[in-house]
Structure formats: C-alpha cells, structure tokens
Amino acid sequence: MSEITYAQAIKEAMSEEMRRDENVFLMGEDVGLYGGAFGVSVGMFEEFGEERVRDTPISEAVIAGAAAGAAVTGMRPIAEIMFSDFTTISMDQLVNQAAKMRYMFGGKAKVPMVLRTPGGSGTGAAAQHSQSLEAWFCHVPGLKVVIPSTPYDAKGLLKAAIRDDNPVIFIEQKLLYRRKGEVPEGDYIIELGKADVKREGKDVTIISYGRMIPPCLKVAEELAAEGIDVEVVDPRTLLPLDKDTLIQSAKKTGRVLIVHEAVQTGGFGGEIAAVLADSEAFYYLDAPIKRLGGLDIPIPYCPELEKNAVPTEEKIKEAIKTLMKGSAKA
Amino acid sequence: MTEKELDAAQQGKGQETLSKELLEDMYIKMLHTRLFEEKVAYFFSMGMVHGTTHLYVGEEASAVGACSALEVEDLITSTHRGHGHCIGKGIDLNKMMAELLGKETGYCKGKGGSMHIADLTRGNIGANGVVGGGHAISVGAALTLRMKKQDNVVLCFFGDGASNEGSFHEALNLASVWKLPVIFLCENNLYGMSVPVSKSMNVQDVAVRAAAYGIEGRVVDGNDAIAVYHAVKEAKEYVKENGPILIEAKTYRWLGHSKSDANVYRTKEEIASWKEKCPIKRLRKYLEEAGISTAEELDSIEKQAKEDIDKAVEFAQNSPYPSLDTIMDDVYA
Ligand SMILES: Cc1ncc(C[n+]2csc(CCOP(=O)(O)OP(=O)(O)O)c2C)c(N)n1
Known about the structure:
heterodimer, A: seven-stranded mixed β-sheet, 36% helix, Thiamine pyrophosphate-dependent dehydrogenase E1 component subunit alpha (chain B)
C-alpha cells in the first residue's frame, strides 16, 4: 500500500492498462507533453510516446466521436474532455452515436471506450467550468456513469471502465485530484455497479458520491460526538446503480439524506429517492427521504457565493438534524 | 522593409490617415491592457484573484487595433482571453477590476469573473469560457442587425485553437450563406494551450479556411495596431455589402496559457524573440518617429495609464463582496 493522490491513481490505472493491453490509448487536449490540464497524465507521453498519448486539436465532438469510432473497430480508447462542461460539445457523439450503436445494431457491436472528464465546482472557474452534469448521462441507456470519491476507488474503477465493453463516462472530481489515499500497488479491479459503505452507522444514511464524500464523512464524525451515528454510502457508479446496497442501508437506519453537488432539480438524487421510495425500504422509513443538492443556479465566481452554491458541511449537518427531528423514533 | 517603413507604408496605404487623437487613444488603451494584466498577475501571486485567468500580454495591438475601428454600436464577441477586447471596446476599468476580485461593483456583480465579462451597453456581448463559444453567437447577433436594418457589424474574436471547433465551421458557413456582416477575427498566437498550430491543423494560415465557405480570408500583422485597425476598418465596409470575412492577426502571448502553465512547450528564445516585437513599444516608436507625438506627450500618456489602473485597483479593493442574499438572483429574467 502507498499513499498517492487521486490524480496519480488515475494515471496508474491508465498506465497499467496501457502496458497490459496495446489496444488501450489516451487522447485529448493537452494530454501529452503538457500532461493534461490538471496534470493527470504527466509523464505518460514520455513513457508511451505520441502514438499512444495523443494530443488532439480543441475539438470535443471529434474527440468523443473518434473514440467511439476507434472503439467499435477494435481499440480501447480513453478520451479526455478537459472540463466536463465541454462534454456538451461532444453530446451528439456520446448520446446519439456511442450509446446507441450496440442496441441499434442488434447487439453486433461493442463500444469499449472511456470518456474521462473532470467535473464540479470549487476552483473559482465560474459557470462554464464548474458544472456537475452526471444526471444527463444517467438519462441515456447504453452509457455507464462512474464518479469515484477516493484514490483507491478511482484506480480500481477506471481499470474496470477500461476493460468494460461499453462506453463509460468517468467523471473525475477537480477538488479531489490532490487528495491522497491508500492505494495498493499493482492490479485490482472494482466492479462497476457496486456501492461502498464508506462509514457504518445505525441512525441515518447519507447517500452521496464524488467530492461530497469527504464533507459527509467529516460531518458524520462530528455528529458521532453528539450521539448521532451516520452511515455514509457511496454508490460509486450511478449507472449501473447498486440499488440493493442503498436499500439495505435505508432499511437499517430508517432515515436517508441524499447529498450531491449537482443542482437539485432534475439531479440524480431524485432517482435515488425514487428507487428507495419504490422499494421495501419505504416501509422502514421513519422520516421522508431528504435531498440536499446544489442550488438551482449556475456556479457563481465570487468565492463565498461559490462555496454556498453547493452543499456545505453546515447544511449537511442541519439536514441530518432536521431528519432526526422529523423522525417518529426520535 | 524595416518595421518603421512597414508602419508608414500601412498608414499610407490605408484610405485614411489616422488622427493623432485616435492613435494616442489606441496607445493608452494598449497600455491599459498591459498594465491591467500585470496587476492581475500580481493579484494572482498574492492569492487575491480566484480561479484562473488567461492574460493577454503581447497581443494588445490586435484587440485595440480592431476595436478602435468599430463604433460603440458595433458588437463584439470575446474569448477566455478577453481583457484586451473589453478595454479596446472602451469598457470601464473600475468595474472590470472589481469583477476580477469578485466584487459586487464588478461588471457581473462578482458572479462572472475574468472569463465572463460583458457590457451590452458598449457592444460587448461577452467574454466566453468555452473555446469557440462566440462563433455562433456572433452570427445570431449579425442576424439581429440585419433583421432590424441596423447598419452595424459584429466582430467575433477567437483563437487559432478555436478554429478547430465545429462551431467555427458551422458559423462561417451560415454567416456566408446568409451574407451576414460578421468579421471573424482570429488571433493566432501560435498555440492552443500547449499545442502548436502545426500539430492541430494542416494549413499554415487559419485564413485559408475561409475559402471553404466561399468567403475572403486575409492575414494581418497582429502586433501592428495600425495594420489591424486598417484591416478591420476596410472589412467593416466590406462585410456590410458582401457578408462575412475572416481576418487572421498573427501575434503571440508572452505569458503562460493560464496561471497553472509551466510553459514546457516553448523555448525561452522563442518568447524573447517575440518580446522584441512588443506591439506597444512599436506604436510608441512610430508615434515619435513619424512626429505625431512628442516623447513628453507619450510619457504623460503612460503616466495617465498607470494612474487609471491604480484607480481601478483602489476602486476594486474598496468595493464590497456581493451579499449571500443575492445568490439566487438573476437566474431568470
Ligand atoms: C470548448 C472548450 N474546450 C477546451 C477549453 C479549455 N481551453 C481554454 S483556452 C484553450 C486554448 C484555446 O486556444 P486558442 O483558441 O488558440 O486561444 P488562445 O488561448 O491561444 O488565446 C483551451 C483548450 C475550453 N475552455 N473550452
């Protein structure tokens, strides 16, 4: 085991997969000599050369479309879109092409590509560089959607994504890139569609993912001191979603708070809430399921406003306390 | 030809001889741009500017030359590297600096920051955080001008890198078939982040791409404010009659792409050679040598420019941050 950053974990996953399988390659804007806008691929150009670590022009549509084209014909491309906001420019290729090929062709095609892209706010880059668009992708059958919250998860999930025969949208979290965590050396895989209980607890379940996991865990520790035992569950992949683990946790604690950075309206939290409401967990609930998403606004630039546009530790704590009060058991 | 002869020839070949007033206005705006960026860089190093910013140092002749050829009612769309465009278009320096510091008195009430400054009252439809984001918007703006029978034009600034986006090609095509008055002005500073133009396109000049859409493409020395002025001035009349044109201004950015750029992809010698071609020094030299302004006059303009920027800094620093209560404002009209 060694302590590495989330960014390094992603790089290790890519590098190991590229060493293992010559069909795997990386392409995207400034991924080569520059090492990627967030430094994720630093050093890979030197190791693998420009044939397999390919700088592209600034052309998001063709990056995504070319990945789909290479994938359907036998390669296993990893395509990087510099900010997840610009997947909007790739959308036709992802939604209408990559996601549809296999089904439309009657199961005769495989599209083993990964689209890596950093999402989220907190860097002061304002409204066009800070969005959390995962719910959009979850609405498209044929895609898989992954958002890791730790270096360990990032490495294992990315390896699984690269080996997966479907188009996978792999959303990285800008604010987590420099966070360190234990990662075993060498090969390990985390199956897509398996949630992880990040902290066990018996009073209330937080379901969250990505960069909201660290604040949720912190709040959980703080509330433990006040006698509230919080369980934190991270689905890790939103599509496919590990419904069982979420339902089991909701049954166990009887109270559920869903936290995500993406704006609340139309966010993936609504889907999670519906899954629980539609399951046997419903009969175990002691309070209505609560959602805490980002405010329904574009991300503002000013630091104080930006911070408050998404769930803060204070708001998470407050939401849990409300949930505890509203509970029949309390 | 020496640079001086070139300048003189360009000044002579243009239909108009530029007035002292206009030239000095261009000079101060270029200085404002340079000094503004230097302050922003300083604020950054002090941790006072949030996020990222893309500085325009070295490219001042292009924005100021181009915007000086426009009327207030002419429109521009700008880019992520837009501070120079704003200043060229005559924006309020105080509000601009305040926006960079995220203050309530800023152009966007502290909500937009460096990449989203807009001043609709002075024809700036907005900087843009999305590379290529302005191409199509400029087409729509030109359509408005046409449909409302206004005799103005739209100038769309973008980089060489942005000319690889689909939106560039779609916008040129539509503007061409609808014969809309858009001047597409490519500021070719030779790099899209770390990638040199030679590795992102297989033509030397972005200008030749115009041919594919049946429009004219011209190349101009982007470090020569007067040349850019004339090119845009001419283009203005041209696009009103004939529909869009593509002008490519060849220039260079002295600093990194953004604050996080380690600059590993270009040599110190290359950067130094472009610093030799400083557009501001060049204009000053011309003004003096052509006997248009005296050294004293130019010194006093420089002094004025410094004072203006210092005032903007003071204004910005003394302004309050927006209140948290405003966080939900302005999502909808
Ligand atoms: C659609 C989109 N893709 C990528 C980026 C990230 N990015 C910002 S500026 C830039 C380079 C732009 O190059 P160019 O258009 O030549 O303008 P320059 O920076 O050289 O002025 C890139 C890749 C972005 N902002 N928008």
